Batch of 2 targets.
Target 1
Amino acid sequence: MPCIFGTLSPLRFIVLFRDPSPAEWDATTEMDEQNRPIHMFQVCNVMEPNQNNWLRSNWIQRQAAQKVFVELRFTLRDCNSIPWVSGTCKETFNLFYLETEQPHPANTRFLPADYAKVDTIAADESFTQTDLGDRILRLNTEVREVGPVTRRGFYLAFQDVGACIALVSVKVFYKRCPSTLRNLAAFPDTVPRVDSSSLVEVRGACVENAEERDTPKLYCGADGDWLVPLGHCVCSPGHEETGAVCQACKPGFYKAFAGNTKCSKCPPHSSSHDQAGTICHCDKGFYRAAKDPSSIACTHSPSAPRNLICLINETALFLTWSPPSDSGGRKDLTYNVLCHRCAGTSNGEEVCEPCETDLRFIPRPLGINQTSVAILDYAKNANYTFFVEAVNGVSDLGQVLRPLANITVATDQAGPSLVGVVRKDWASDNSIALSWLEVEPQPNAILDYDIKYYEKEQEQLSYSSTRTKNPNVIVTGLKPATVYVFHLRSRTAAGFTTYSNKFEFSTGDENSGMAADQGQVLVVVTAAVGGFSLLIIVTLFFLITGRCQGYIKAKIKSEDKRRGPFQNVVSIPGIKTYVDPDTYEDSTQAVHEFTKEIDPSRICIERVIGAGEFGEVCGGRLRTGGQRDTPVAIKTLKGGYVERQRKDFLREASIMGQFDNPNVIRLEGVVTKSRPVMIVVEYMENGSLDSFLRKHDGQFTVLQLVGMLRAIASGMTYLSDMGYVHRDLAARNILVNEALVCKVSDFGLSRVLEDDPDAAYTTTGGKIPIRWTAPEAIAYRKFSSASDAWSYGIVMWEVMSYGERPYWEMSNQDVILSIEEGYRLPAPMGCPVALHQLMLHCWQKERGQRPYFNDVVSFLDKLTRNPGSLLTLVEHMHSFPESPVDMPDYPLFISIGDWLDSIKMSQYKNNFLAAGFTTLDSVSAMTLEDIRRIGVSLIGHQRRIVSSIQTLRLQLLSGQHNGFHV
Ligand code: ACK
């Protein structure tokens, strides 16, 4: 049964009156089918008409009922079975009720009119007579709803109107939804609404040791059924569901979180002693790290690393060890290397100091994941003790003293710093020039100096270092008005000395900005290495041609028109000069002055060829009226631009419109008076030079490549003569037409640099394409035609290597450092020596020593007229003219795999290994033929590998690699 019944009892009945005849309801006892006595009220006045006999109940308290059910059990004889009663015999009786707040006083007169009729009750069964004349009693059961009832109580009454009835039982009840437990929530007894279509919402309360997830609810239906269970409770931590209740976990078990899960057994090395455990505590000597879940075993700290050994060479110490025999049961093992340097004894005790901060650890001193570390910058003539400890996630929780492996290393003689007082020669906002003297003549010649510096305020955070061969240096890329701390040491054949005292100097003093132009101090060595006749020839060529340019040119140079940092300032009669559109207050005025407005109806856009910063670049035709249409490229300014973008977009047109040279991209005109705004330029069928070369790798003769270089130099001669400094000269900004003519494009400085994916922010805040830019432009934004000449040298290298990325995958920071240290790009494979020499000339540290563009054009013309001069290739030479005296610190490649990864050629690892080239030593001796033989067939890849091998040879020669094996 879904419901229980509230029984409204006890019931008693009162026979009320007999009216008008003397008949009445009688209380009698009869026997049922099983011969059990039945007490009942009966009436049977079927012979007499107009019966009206009443039987009334006692006053029944309503309690919580809103609707009352009355179940009647009775017998009723059918009139046909009684002779001579037709017309008077009835087969029904009536049920009435009356609601009152109080029972009527005993003497109250019964007034049938006060009662409301519930129903007329008829029988389903009736008495039947057997053949033997026995009467068989057939019981009828009928249920009637009474109500809604609202008063405190009520009476029931039965009216007989002339039937033969026996009323056996009357049950009065109401329906309730019984109290219940569902989803770990308890719901109380609830009385349904009278209106059977609406439900009573009941909120459950979580059972003991359970907590609510979603509010538990049930709805009580009119029939006393619970419907629509919603929400639920879950057992709290330390308890699990058993039956409909939450029981505590037994000792040795735990449950960490509230939920439907069961209690779990404690993980290894932990236990719970009480009931209802939410966690198992670690046994003595075992721990859990903060982030360890409570479900994993407790662990302990590892034992000491084993087999610690040290290898030492001139520049590096290598510590290696084996993992500890006991990892403590964890996988998060790392190692820390600590250092002590002991310098003699005091009062009989050895004086030792921590020395981690003096040394450079690769990869780092603490938290090392592998079982080795390289240590650089150690002093010679010193005793170091290195301690290596293995730590895991619980090391800090365990014993205070951790087991350590240690080793003591004595380095060779190298002596003290050899650096005397360090002097600041000058400082600008971003640079400081320093010089110093050697303390005294040394038996070991000083190879170079290592300068370590850091912002005084930031000492703990980071430091930088640079190297120089001379006893002076310009440290660039510094912050203005900032105090820096410098300390120096020298390197001799015996290795590094100790560091000098610390010296503090600040940037941005009264000499700011002057010194670089005055050239007071020798800067770090440049790349040019003497001794090669070709270099001398090239240099002489530039000296002679430079001198023979005549007085007028010399005068222009002296006014620094071509090299000046400011454009649009010098106007020399007879020579057209570039006008910077930014000098116009109203930029539309510049557009108006230098460009031609084109009627858009003349432009026919045919296809999209690329995406520019401001919108699509399209190919199409320009109608010229009568003659043949001109193919054009159309740069569009996409909709929704702001005024600043429109101005920047048209700025390039205002610049381009001033140029008229076969090697500079030609502006056809602009559309500014209608939408979209467009810049229309001559069409260059082969697109940008870098991708064009990559697409046609190895397909051109050297003379064709020289032709391209000449065209670029010629365009640049024109631009520099105009006084225009490009600032972003790179192969990606050269366009190539159908006839392979190269033209300089991409003007408009700020936009160019914002747009250029190769441009990076420098410490001075500007955005600069580092790999293409001269050091003085990077360091203090000294842009000039001489810095364009540097970029031109890089473009030469890109052309001769068919679009290779300058400096490959080196980081921008490494490029800056290595240039500063004198490193220059080696000749690409197949590059004539004369061209590489020209590149090196463009990459002179001193910008005044770089070639002028017109000299470059003349030189290239000479080479073209005398092609024999192009036959000597760099790989035919037996040494490396491009090699700087000192090499930059490249990462320590320790395997062929690492080396190939670093030049993005890992796909050939197996080719190298299968052919027996398993050490860097053996690789360094490989020829181009070897590289082809092992299966590197793409020319670009051969070229990349050859270039890297050249670098590798130099590193091995200078002792930076130790020929580690795979
Ligand atoms: O390397 P590309 O083919 O050459 O893809 C880019 C693209 O538009 C987005 O700059 C090409 N492009 C730019 N200017 C011209 C032009 N004047 N003629 C032909 N293609 C051009 C460029």
Note: Residues 609-610, 612, 617, 633, 665, 681, 683-684, 687-688, 691, 735 surround 2',3'- cyclic AMP (CB under 6 Å).
Target 2
Amino acid sequence: MKILISVFLIFYSFTIFPINCVAQNNFYKNGMVSSADEIASEIGIEVMKKGGNAIDASVAVGFALAVVYPQAGNIGGGGFMVIHLNDGRNTSIDYREKAPLLSHRDMFLDKNGNVIDGLSTTGHLSGGVPGSVKGLLFALEKYGTMKREEVLTYAINLAENGFEISPRLAKVLNEYQNQFSKFPSTMKIFGKNWKAGDLLIQKDLANTLRLISNYGAEGFYTGYVADKIVEEMKLYDGLISYEDLLKYEAKERAVVTGTYKGYEIISMGPPSSGGISLIYLLNILEQENLGKYGYGSADAISVMTEGMRVVYADRSEHMADIDFYEVPVNVLTSKEYARKRFDNFGNDRARNSDEIKPGNIAKEKENTTHYSIADKDGNCVSVTTTINDNFGSKLVIEGAGFFLNNEMDDFVSKPGVPNMFGLLGSEANSISPEKRMLSSMTPTIVLKDGKPFMITGSPGGGRIITAVLMSIINVIDFGMNIVDAVDKPRFHHQWYPDEIQAENGMLSETVRKELVKRGYKINDFRDYASLDVIIFNDNGEMRGHSDRRGYGKAIGY
Ligand code: GLY
């Protein structure tokens, strides 16, 4: 059997993935995929070589990541897809998870009104109704060109026959053994001491993917897979019901747009806070000459920090699922509001987050993953998808083989109590049946003169927004090439906690001293957020880069 599998893998790698002789430093004409996993990127390229467009490739990559990147790639979670079509249209698909019909505002509180530790982050109650399958298939049917069976075949083969895991996947799987041990269904597939090169076979997941391939979304939201989800919920007091699964719909939504120094920014609107916050921050920073201050300078860091402080304060109050709460999108993305909120900032002293309140507007250890794809015809796709934490709720649905998300933690369990990313929120983002929890995912496309200039996005919980911001300003303001723009150290501030979270190497000793003198608190932070970015030159050729912080790969042809 082992020999058969090895023969299959050798055959598979040489037939499905012809020798990859691309160099990361070059620009390519025909297509580019940057994702968190090399196998997934190869699949995206293969789909485009077969004549598929960027949307076909993004759907194949999405399903493949559910197999090869189980810590965040998923069919048990949700995501957002931002699309720029070569005819100039922009659109986005929202397949964010929803709160189950039986959920309620105080479901994570004890009888004294205190948040019960771990309930919103682990196990059955932490899961929202998954949206990924509906969302990916919606994108394929409306904007793709290939058959469902064609794009799913790669993921099915990888799940059925297995793939050799990388050192990084072995490490992350081993780190989570303790948390997996609560769930026999998870242990059955993922419970062991993993070594790089071990074969990860996921038969149940292969069966689920085959049902999706054969029957479309119905193969997931009804029938065998729905039975398995509901059985699991009934056994352990989870809330997701047949009705939840039947009612789940992905939604096509207008993108949010802005401009920055002559570039057009296209990003994801609510229920993500990402696009609005990014545009709001860029509107603030447009008033400053960051290029003159220079990357890593005390002045650039001060001004960016103060912008972040203001934006995250407003995020906590004014952003939520727009189907449930009137998010003032136009105000928050307007240049005028950014000017008003950032008036009179002198960068010689730190403000204090207690001084900054959300604006008064009349009536919005993570794991998530991002991929960017462009095809030869100028179609661009920017997708961020998540099950929230690494391996989501840690629960694999018995018999269906996929991790359920723990996205319920992105709601506000109780105003004033931070979620797992330390983010605060208000009543606007409280739990309500069928509501989508607020996200920070920021899949973004930047255009210049109407043509693609950059596709960017990242995992990173609350830090996604500032990581995406820095990928853009590193190029536009600091003149970096794509590799530096992605790999250079970053920092983050999110209003509360009132501290600059600085990656190793971000602050020189002089700058650190100067920032402390100005009154900033600094918290040294491990590397976070792994960008996958594509940039275009004036001829429309593409170059991709997958962040040094992750273990993904950008591949072009
Ligand atoms: N689960 C992380 C986010 O959506 O922001």
Note: Confidence is low (pLDDT under 50) at residues 1-24.
